[in-house]
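User: Fold this, then the next.

Assistant: Folding the first:
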Amino acid sequence: MADQVAPGTMAEAGNTGARGLDAQIAPSYVHEAHHGRPASWATTSIVIVGFVIGGIALPVGPIWWLFWLGTGIVVLGAIFGAAVHIFDDWY
């Protein structure tokens, strides 16, 4: 019964009740997520448009210039994504 917490002690600011290793292994790095940012949505949209254009070009012809246009759009979307740092939180 020695480990029981007295009433009201957990309400103190900053007291998480952690003991031993739990108290010592506090996260020292706060990871800022990039998911859901407008730049992520824009990059995803650009890449999807490129895939759709390239995907349509193959069964209707194949229309090779349209396929390579779609491929170029995908590459430009990936470059845009790298430029706005949406890949920095890859873990």
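Now the next one, as you asked:
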Amino acid sequence: MRLGIVSDIHGNLLALEAVLAELEREAPDRLICLGDVVAGPRASEALARVRALGCPLIMGNWDAWSVDGMPEPLNPVEQRLYDLGAFWAEGLGEDDRDFIRTFAPRIELELGGTRLLCFHGSPASYDHWIIATTPDHEVEEMLGGYGAPVLVGGHTHLQMVRRYSDSLFVNPGSVGQPFELWSPDSVRVGPRAEYALLTAEDGRLSVDLRRTTYDVDAHLRAGLESGMPHADWWAASWQQLA
């Protein structure tokens, strides 16, 4: 049994199509999306594409904000993100919002006899940030009593496989906005699309973190021509890699 995992698409339809083309060739038995489908230049189109897949969908923080409103900004960077999020949310139709409201906070499934718990940031909150260097005691607090042999989360835009206690923690990275470098003061986005494949058979489990290419320049043009606020600032996170 194989499971395809996508997360953090962020309205990047071109990256999504590149990943789905590869997944179609791989033909996994199941597919799951860990959230943050929207919040990007082609959010409604990406949402429609994912909806057509009929796969389980988990609520991401940007998905929720697009329906319920952005959190109040506390600094200039958050103000830019607030403006962008509000602009992208305005491009969604009421049917889009109704569909987003059906997203689950977490999903438990079985893959070849192995139990998986899937979520966005953590099982307790789509805002929780868990990376490879997060101390175990902080991970324990964020899990909020939830657990499974395999924990599958997104949100950080950073691909990861790590051990936590007797569990394996997998993050597929981001389809639409994978981070090359992240810090509280600086973000650089890698010119690629990311996803993962999990295979469980005959008592064995394998994790395959994948990266593929797409037309990044066309995606940036779509953003720059969309009329969204702070478009140059948004695009610079990719352009800094040149």
